[in-house]
Each structure stands twice: as C-alpha cells, then as structure tokens.
Design brief:
Elements (H helix, E strand, L loop, with lengths): L15 H17 L3 E5 L12 H13 L3 E7 L5 H4 L12 E6 L3 H12 L5 E6 L31 E5 L11 H14 L2 E6 L3 E3 L2 H5 L6 E3 L5 E4 L16 E3 L5 E3 L6
Parallel strand pairs: 1-2, 2-3, 3-4, 4-5, 5-6
Antiparallel strand pairs: 7-9, 8-9, 10-11
C-alpha cells in the first residue's frame, strides 16, 4: 500500500488480517502472562480528523477486546483527543493504553504537554524524536488543571520519555547535552527514559574531536562536535550504556527491553 501524508490525502484502513493478528497476540500474551506492547498506527494517527469516526469505534472495540496487550499510541494531534475518546474512557483512561505525543522542541513542549496531561491516561509519554533542541520538560505538573470527575486524587505527570536523533539525508545533528538533559530530568522526576538511537549523527568522542576526520562534522557554538556516521552505525549508547527504561503501571521507572511485536 502506498502511504500518503498530509491534508486531503486518502486514508487507508488496515486489512482484516492485521486486526486478526492483534487478537492472536492477545491470546498469546494471556497464555504466557508476558508484557506485550503494541505500537499502534505506526503509519497513521488514531486522532486524525480526516479518518472516519467509525474506524475509531472499531479500533476502541479492539482495544477493549485485547486487555492483555498494551497499546502505545503516539499522536501529533493532542488537541483532537478529548472529543475522539470512547464514551467509557473514564477518569483514568483504559488500563491497557499508554498515550504519547510527539515533541521535538521547546515550543511544542510548552504548547502540547499541558494538553496531554489534561487527558486521563494510565501512562503519559513523550516521543521526542527527532530531538531538535534543548527542552525543559517542566516535569512538575502542579499547574495543570484536571477537570474530569474523580481527578482530585490523580496528579498528572509525564511517565515516559522516548528520544532519538533524526534520520535521512538532510538530518540535523543532536547535541549531546540535549539528550543528557532529558535523561537527567527523567531521573529526577522518577520517569522512565528510553533512548532509541542517535540517527545520522552522533557526538564525537575526545579522540575524534581532536583529530582530523574524513567524516562530515557539525560544530555547535559551545565547541561540541557531532559526526555524520549514518543511522546504521551511529549506535544508541549514551555515556557508555543504553537506556531502555519502561514505565510500569504504577509509574515507576523499570529496566526492561520492549517485546518485539
């Protein structure tokens, strides 16, 4: 199927066989008791206002039918979410849905994180890839007003941050400290941090930064240098290790590798 993006482009519904596969995953997860995350609509957005409402009705029915799967939903349209949730979403959301938004810079963080935290959800998260600048996540959500019934005992918070660099020929280089800052903000707030990859660029180590290189280099104003390595070679280590934290349902950061579904 040809994927087309943007306003006015045709939207395509996935095949019945794909929906049947999700049901099979649910049966296997129920049998084994394992954690099965399902990254939902990787080439779409459930909250796209150009998608027929009846498609969402069917999707929410599938989510209810598959309680042993954890549906990880990422949207760029958080403003649409409240009016597109199912009637039985409740004041805590579905227990098997994690709601994430895309945030790539401070402007998007300031605009959209408060909107995210006003939506009841078992897990609130940020997909920060590509990371295009330093971002203060303002992890203290005390100023976010939650008006849903029963919300008095629920303090909204960011539970999970996924970050990574940009891919593609015109990819922009991420600064090492941008990524470190996200990790440290998560650690201070008790949120989970998952670093996916550096992308086309990775920070130069001390030897690379001090010696001539044949690779394309980008120098930041503070002297930090990134090298264009290519996403297959740039790796995903930050300060000598990988960061694969996932939130558990209580919101504590736990070390785990996501299942390959």
């Amino acid at each position: 199927m040809k994927i087309e993006w943007g306003a006015g482009k045709p939207r395509h519904r996935t095949s019945p066989s794909t929906w049947a596969q999700v049901r099979r995953w649910n049966a296997k997860a129920a049998a084994t008791g394992e954690f099965w995350p399902v990254f939902t609509a990787s080439l779409a957005d459930v909250f796209d206002n150009e998608v027929p409402d009846e498609w969402r009705v069917d999707f929410w029915a599938l989510v209810r039918e598959c309680p042993h799967l954890t549906f990880q939903m990422v949207t760029k349209r958080i403003g649409n979410v409240p009016r597109m949730l199912p009637p039985d979403w409740g004041d805590a959301g579905y227990p098997n849905v994690w709601l994430l938004i895309t945030v790539v810079n401070q402007e998007e963080a300031d605009r959209d994180i408060p909107k995210l935290l006003r939506v009841p959800a078992r897990i609130h998260g940020l997909s920060m890839e590509p990371l295009l600048g330093p971002v203060d996540l303002r992890m203290d959500a005390a100023d976010v007003q939650v008006d849903e019934p029963g919300a008095a005992n629920r303090r909204p918070r960011i539970d999970w941050v996924i970050s990574g660099g940009e891919s593609g020929e015109d990819a922009r280089a991420p600064h090492l400290e941008w990524v470190r800052s996200l990790r440290d903000q998560c650690a201070a707030a008790g949120a989970a941090f998952f670093f996916k990859r550096w992308g086309e660029w990775r920070p130069a180590d001390a030897a690379e930064a001090s010696a001539p290189t044949a690779r394309q280099a980008h120098s930041f104003a503070d002297g930090v240098i990134s090298l264009k390595i290519g996403k297959k070679s740039s790796g995903r280590e930050l300060d000598g290790r990988t960061w694969d934290q996932l939130p558990d349902t209580a919101g504590w950061a736990v070390e785990a590798a996501p299942a390959g579904v």
